[in-house]
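Subject: Protein record for review, amino acid sequence with backbone structure tokens
Category: Structural biology, sequence-to-fold work with a learned token vocabulary.
Format: Residues in single-letter code; tokens as whole numbers, each standing for a residue.
Body of memo: The sequence and its backbone structure tokens, given next.
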Amino acid sequence: MWARGKAMPSALDRQGMFVAPGDKLGVIEEFLPGQGTYVDSGEIRASRAGFLLLNLNDRKVTVFRPVEPKGANSIPKPGSIVVGEVSNTHQTYSLVRIWMVGHRHLANFFTGLLHISNVGLRVKNMFNVCRPGDILRAKVISVKNRIRHLSLAGKKLGVIYAFCTNCGSMLKAREDKKLICENCGSIERRKLASDYGAVVL
């Protein structure tokens, strides 16, 4: 939830954040209401407490209920395929907030670390792999000090949604595997999953 008296961040900026019943999530001119939401005077609001999820493929806003992790399948462990949001990128590594294991949303975030040596490609720096705000799919290869160490080695692993570093619009993949922003024309690089832009979260 955001502090009162401050401008409300966009739904995209609040991706994965906790929301309470009645919180404004967007307007119907921009998004479609999904599960856990309702429409009031053209505004989409949360009908239940949970985590905000914006499906960029069909522009649908949903609020999913926190699910308490039960059993090994709900906790990221070596071999697990996870989905998360890149929170920080440095020259040789990126930090990831993991909020899905397989197709299951988690009640809490886990921290993942993606090192440049585990990208699966030869790159000079991590800024050509992923950037803050990107959504990626990765494989957990080890757990050390509660940090999940991740790998992007594999066709289905990599960024599944990326956003322009200039204007924040979603980037579209070209045939040469570069990404272009149709809003401002910026061209960027990422390590893309084979199903980039077509994933239903």
The first strand starts at residue 18 and ends at 19. The radius of gyration is 17 Å. Residues 72-161 form a domain with the OB fold (Dihydrolipoamide Acetyltransferase, E2P) fold (CATH 2.40.50.140).
